[in-house]
């Protein structure tokens, strides 16, 4: 991918020192050579190692990691903002908080959450979590991000406070997992710094500040999603490879095994990232200080660690899907409260049933010929350029610039080598040595940044392949730590531009404002108020149909005092009308209890819908963004309508309107093509 570290794309920190660099800079660079120091495993080899006494004086890597974390007040400011945004940003990120089966966990793990009216989330599992889907999607991610804090909340409520108020449950369902994910995000910060422990250590702080200032970190890393967990796992794989000297093999295999075992249950495609430790190990061959037997022993231990965690995740899936029964005595456990109650009875514990291997089932589905043909037909690599600018902001400009510079240098070196081959009889000129860049350091940095870039590009390929019909903005969250490592000194490095840093912070503020305070923000507030009976215009046993909006976390309804049911009407008018028709066909349907909730930016026809109430302000939706500032100011709200039309006529009219819109778009594309051809012919005539 790249030729030399000083010319590696995405790696400005590896550039050679300028000609007027001071001697102190050279000394600083020379300190970045990989250190080999003994660990606890070296005691048996101390007598046979002559340089152990001098190497033992090297500073502890763990101490330097925490020194970096505590060295900047700006980092603590970003962490404080990350924590505060848990409580003051009600908006959702494209619904990713609600897509992993969290609702069913809330029903089984939290008290006072009723499942009878949580339709359809707790009755219809997400895609891949049903027997019809052959259990191709794991619950492990939702269990770690939401299940663990829900169980802790249950124990605290029942064992410490002797029961919690039902009105608290909606807020607990939303806030407690975010607090838990905030603590896990700090682990990602530590792992990010560890990735710089051996190479380019002086860039660890600038990378940490860059990562902490990104809007994706401030918002998405505190949301209970698989993407946040995947970012932590990928950072752990990188830190395992580059966070310890080469003669400490256990961290490499133990940490990589743990991260890979969890990653493939979050998404089976995460298995591709095993390429990272494989590349690292292939570059270790022949290095001094490498003990082969120690690596073999650590590899066997890593396999055991991988098997241990995989067994845990398989058990979690199997118990959740009901194929693996846990018993105390002869009683089968059916809920968490029941498990806690029987855990202290002293009855014999046993288990019996069938295990579910969700990653294997998913891989079998991928190998299906029909799936592969559909994948090849829909995959569009250009999708990444639609999402990368949105998630990276100004960093995307740097990404393109560094990629272009690296490609240009690589092509120049290739042309030089071709000339040398053509003129093999001529004496080769000795390449001038870069100041402050030893051969050892040059090779080490090459391996380091080449691995980072390979990981980043591999991650993009995996994202495009997995999300071939639509590459979501937040789906690229897991690649942010790797991108920051490649662009370590861009924003907060010693030579970074203050103007560019302010530009990035302004972009972060704008994205936090939209994704944190406006995008679908009315829906969580609506659910919390409805669950506590706080909206008078919504009657008992009401049916709320969400149109052009995330259906939301039904567990936020908490006690659901008015017994309200929430339904998803999708983003198209045809889906909305079909949902309304299905609800009207149910037994016990009453027209005065069915309402449609939609953003104010949606033009609802007056002959079909009558406005009833404004449910929440500062609410926008990605499927229907405002056309201008005036719309954003006047129409940023969530409205409630009553349906008074005929859904059958609306469906027909909607199809006709869709056909007319498609015809208009076709005519517009033809006119644009004609204009371009006309302008091209005119310019060619002018040149002549």
UniProtKB/TrEMBL annotation:
Region ranges (Disordered): 1-55, 652-688
Basic residues biased stretches: 25-37
Provenance organism: Gracilariopsis chorda
Protein name (database record): Uncharacterized protein
Transmembrane domains' residue ranges: 74-93, 179-197, 203-220, 227-246, 252-283, 295-316, 384-401, 474-493, 500-518
Lineage of origin: Eukaryota, Rhodophyta, Florideophyceae, Rhodymeniophycidae, Gracilariales
Signal peptide: none
Coiled coil: 404-431
Keyword Membrane included in the entry's annotation: yes
């Amino acid at each position: 991918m790249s030729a030399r570290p000083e010319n590696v794309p995405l790696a400005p920190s590896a550039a050679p020192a300028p000609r007027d660099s001071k001697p102190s800079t050279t000394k600083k660079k020379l300190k970045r050579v990989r250190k080999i120091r003994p660990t606890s495993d070296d005691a048996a080899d101390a007598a046979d190692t002559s340089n152990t006494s001098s190497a033992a004086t090297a500073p502890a890597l763990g101490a330097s990691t925490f020194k970096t974390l505590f060295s900047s007040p700006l980092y603590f400011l970003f962490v404080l903002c990350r924590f505060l945004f848990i409580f003051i940003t009600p908006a959702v990120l494209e619904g990713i908080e609600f897509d992993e089966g969290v609702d069913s966990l809330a029903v089984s793990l939290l008290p006072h959450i009723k499942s009878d009216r949580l339709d359809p989330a707790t009755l219809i599992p997400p895609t891949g979590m049903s027997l019809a889907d052959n259990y191709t999607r794991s619950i492990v991610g939702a269990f770690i991000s939401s299940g663990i804090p829900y169980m802790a909340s249950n124990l605290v409520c029942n064992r410490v406070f002797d029961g919690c108020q039902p009105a608290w449950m909606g807020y607990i369902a939303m806030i407690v997992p975010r607090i838990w994910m905030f603590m896990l995000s700090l682990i990602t910060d530590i792992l990010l710094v560890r990735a710089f422990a051996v190479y380019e250590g002086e860039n660890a702080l600038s990378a940490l500040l860059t990562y902490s200032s990104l809007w994706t970190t401030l918002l998405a890393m505190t949301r209970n999603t698989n993407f946040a967990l995947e970012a932590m796992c990928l950072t752990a794989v990188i830190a395992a490879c580059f966070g310890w000297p080469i003669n400490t093999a256990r961290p490499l295999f133990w940490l990589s095994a743990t991260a890979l075992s969890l990653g493939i249950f979050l998404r089976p495609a995460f298995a591709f990232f095993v390429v990272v430790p494989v590349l690292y190990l292939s570059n270790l061959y022949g290095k001094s200080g490498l003990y082969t037997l120690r690596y073999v022993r650590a590899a066997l231990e890593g396999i055991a660690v991988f098997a241990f965690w995989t067994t845990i995740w398989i058990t979690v899936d199997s118990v959740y899907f009901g194929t693996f029964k846990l018993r105390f005595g002869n009683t089968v456990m059916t809920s968490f409260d029941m498990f806690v109650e029987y855990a202290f009875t002293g009855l014999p514990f046993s288990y019996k049933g069938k295990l579910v291997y969700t990653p294997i089932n998913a891989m079998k589905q991928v190998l299906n010929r029909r799936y592969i043909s559909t994948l090849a037909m829909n995959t569009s690599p250009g999708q990444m350029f639609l999402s990368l600018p949105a998630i990276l902001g100004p960093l995307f400009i740097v990404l393109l610039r560094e990629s272009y510079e690296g490609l240009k240098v690589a092509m120049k070196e290739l042309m030089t080598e071709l000339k040398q081959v053509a003129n093999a009889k001529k004496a080769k000129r000795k390449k001038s040595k870069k100041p402050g860049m030893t051969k050892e350091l040059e090779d080490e940095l090459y391996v380091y940044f080449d691995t980072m870039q390979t990981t980043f590009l591999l991650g993009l390929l995996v994202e495009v392949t997995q999300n071939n019909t639509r590459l979501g903005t937040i789906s690229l969250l897991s690649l942010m730590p790797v991108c920051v490592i490649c662009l370590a000194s861009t924003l907060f490095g010693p030579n970074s531009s203050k103007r560019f840093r302010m530009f990035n912070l302004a972009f972060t503020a704008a994205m936090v404002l939209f994704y944190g305070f406006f995008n679908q923000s009315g829906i969580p507030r609506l659910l919390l108020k409805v669950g506590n009976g706080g909206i008078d215009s919504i009657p008992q046993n009401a049916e709320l149909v969400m149109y052009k909006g995330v259906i939301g976390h039904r567990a936020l309804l908490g006690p659901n005092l008015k017994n309200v049911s929430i339904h998803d009407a999708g983003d198209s008018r045809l889906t909305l009308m079909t949902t309304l028709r299905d609800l009207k066909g149910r037994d016990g349907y009453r027209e005065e209890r069915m309402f449609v909730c939609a953003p104010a930016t949606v033009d609802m026809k007056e002959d079909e819908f009558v406005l009833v109430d404004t449910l929440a302000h500062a609410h926008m939706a990605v499927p229907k963004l405002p056309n201008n500032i005036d719309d954003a100011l006047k129409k940023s709200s969530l409205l409630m309508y009553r349906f008074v039309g005929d859904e059958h006529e609306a469906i027909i009219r909607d199809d006709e309107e869709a056909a007319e819109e498609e015809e208009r778009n076709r005519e517009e594309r033809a006119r644009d093509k004609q204009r371009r051809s006309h302008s091209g012919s005119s310019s060619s005539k002018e040149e002549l």
